[in-house]
Amino acid sequence: MPPRCRALAALLSPSPGVPAQWNYNKEFRASPEFRARSFAREGSPPDAECISYTHDRDYEAVSGVQRPAPHLASSAWCPPPPAEYDGFVGLEGRWAGHPRRRPAP
């Protein structure tokens, strides 16, 4: 499994070896565990099979095609700015104006 896929699965998995559960749980997302999660800095762009046009800020750069639902670009969040790989090309998404945003090269 490519790194970004592993990172997302690890964040959403209840314990090692248990598959990620892709859902939206407001109580869990408000928990200290969810709020304290972090991403390691990515070493390279993700494989095209692991990107999502709803979540990935670099969807266009990695896939080579336009996002099927352009209105979702403003809420794209992955990777968070501190986890951007060198040479990252992507949208600001929900990180626009965020204080943790890495400065542009």
Describe this structure in words.
By secondary structure, this protein is mainly alpha-helical. It has one domain. 22% of the residues lie in helices and 0% in strands. The longest helix has 10 residues.
Strands, count: 0
List the domain count as a whole number. 1
The biggest beta sheet is recorded as: none
Work out the radius of gyration: 14 Å
Structural class: mainly alpha
Helix content: 10-25%
Strand-helix topology:
Elements: H1 3-12, H2 26-29, H3 32-35, H4 59-63
TL;DR?
By secondary structure, the chain is mainly alpha-helical. It contains four helices and no strands.
Keywords for this structure?
105 residues, mainly alpha, 0% strand
